[in-house]
């Protein structure tokens, strides 16, 4: 069985881990790798496919293979954590930009998601999140106005959870979450630095107060090369 592709995979992976190839560097072409390692094109492609599957590179058709930043951020799946709280743990340069804030009558999907009546309005909030200067998260929040009468851009740029809990006295209790991988939308491309990625990781959250009232529905859209989604599980 041909294992040459594993040898090439390990060599290139080690070069990426040791910073011989930096993030965003373009790897040598398939032909150059064939000549360097004296192997077939099929062997080189197997190596590159494995590197892509394990998050070392991104292959762009017609452009080549580019090195990814392998220093990913742990994003907790369990627990209800604000981005401001998470940013303290990351210890990186963090910036939030409010892209949209208005109070609207929601469409049918949002109304169903938040279990609202026909006369209920929601705060529609869209924020991009930059880490070390790169916009890598797009948060789209829908917050039932019957629980939050007023909301400002200044509050949203800081922390809506601090405002909900410390000013409004709301007691946020728990959230149900769904994680999917979806095709990138034009909105993602508009607000995020997508770097050619065609897929995005979407975390949908349904957040409840301690009286079991559902008050917030969120779609948090993450560029796939930047995050590892972690959970803690205990048997029994």
What does this molecule look like?
The strands form three sheets. A six-stranded antiparallel beta sheet has the order 4-5-6-9-8-7. Strands 1-2 form a two-stranded antiparallel ribbon. The protein has a two-stranded parallel sheet with strand order 3-10. It is built from eight helices and ten strands. Helix 2 packs across helix 3. It has helices spanning 4-17, 30-37, 41-53, 83-90, 108-113, 153-158, 160-167, 186-191, and strands spanning 57-60, 64-67, 73-76, 94-104, 122-131, 134-144, 172-183, 199-209, 214-222, 227-230. The chain is an alpha+beta fold and 236 residues long. It folds into two domains: 4-67, Orthogonal Bundle (Arc Repressor Mutant, subunit A); 73-230, 3-Layer(aba) Sandwich (Chorismate lyase).
Features:
29% helix; six-stranded antiparallel sheet; 8 helices; two-stranded antiparallel sheet; 10 strands; single chain; Arc Repressor Mutant, subunit A; alpha+beta; Chorismate lyase; elongated; 236 residues
Give the topology string: H per helix, E per strand: HHHEEEHEHEEHHEHEEE
CATH architecture of the largest domain: 3-Layer(aba) Sandwich
- Overall mean confidence score, pLDDT: 89
What structural class do you assign from the helix and strand content? alpha+beta
CATH topology of the largest domain: Chorismate lyase
Order of strands, main sheet, comes to: 4-5-6-9-8-7
Number of strands: 10
CATH H level, superfamily name of the largest domain: Chorismate lyase-like
Helix content: 25-40%
Intertermini distance: 43 Å
Gross morphology = elongated
Radius of gyration, taken over Cα atoms and rounded to an integer in Å? 22 Å
Task: Tell me the major beta sheet.
Answer: 6 strands, antiparallel
Strand content: 25-35%
CATH class (first level) name of the largest domain: Alpha Beta
Low-confidence stretches: none
**Overall number of domains:** 2
The number of helices is 8
InterPro entries: Bact_HTH_transcr_reg (IPR050679), Chorismate_lyase_/UTRA_dom_sf (IPR028978), TreR (IPR012770), Tscrpt_reg_HTH_GntR (IPR000524), UTRA (IPR011663), WH-like_DNA-bd_sf (IPR036388), WH_DNA-bd_sf (IPR036390)
Domain HTH gntR-type: 2-70
Protein name: Trehalose operon repressor
Pfam family, one: UTRA
């Amino acid at each position: 069985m041909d294992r040459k592709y594993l040898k090439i995979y390990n060599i290139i992976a080690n070069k990426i881990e040791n910073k011989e190839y930096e993030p965003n560097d373009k790897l040598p072409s398939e032909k150059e790798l064939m000549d360097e390692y004296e192997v077939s094109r099929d062997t080189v492609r197997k190596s590159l496919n494995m590197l892509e599957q394990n998050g070392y590179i991104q292959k762009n058709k017609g452009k080549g293979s580019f090195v990814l930043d392998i220093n990913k951020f742990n994003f907790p799946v369990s627990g209800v954590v604000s981005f401001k709280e998470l940013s303290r743990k990351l210890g990186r340069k963090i910036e939030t930009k409010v892209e949209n804030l208005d109070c609207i009558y929601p469409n049918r999907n949002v109304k169903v998601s938040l279990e609202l009546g026909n006369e209920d309005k929601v705060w529609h909030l869209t924020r991009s999140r930059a880490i070390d200067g790169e916009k890598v998260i797009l948060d789209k929040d829908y917050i039932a106005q019957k629980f939050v009468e007023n909301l400002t851009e200044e509050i949203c740029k800081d922390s809506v959870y601090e405002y909900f809990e410390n000013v409004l006295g709301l007691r946020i209790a728990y959230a149900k979450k769904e994680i999917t991988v979806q095709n990138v939308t034009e909105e993602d491309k508009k607000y995020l630095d997508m770097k050619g990625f065609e897929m995005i990781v979407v975390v949908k959250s349904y957040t409840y107060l301690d009286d079991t009232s559902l008050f917030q529905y969120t779609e948090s859209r993450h560029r796939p090369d930047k995050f590892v989604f972690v959970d803690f599980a205990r048997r029994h």
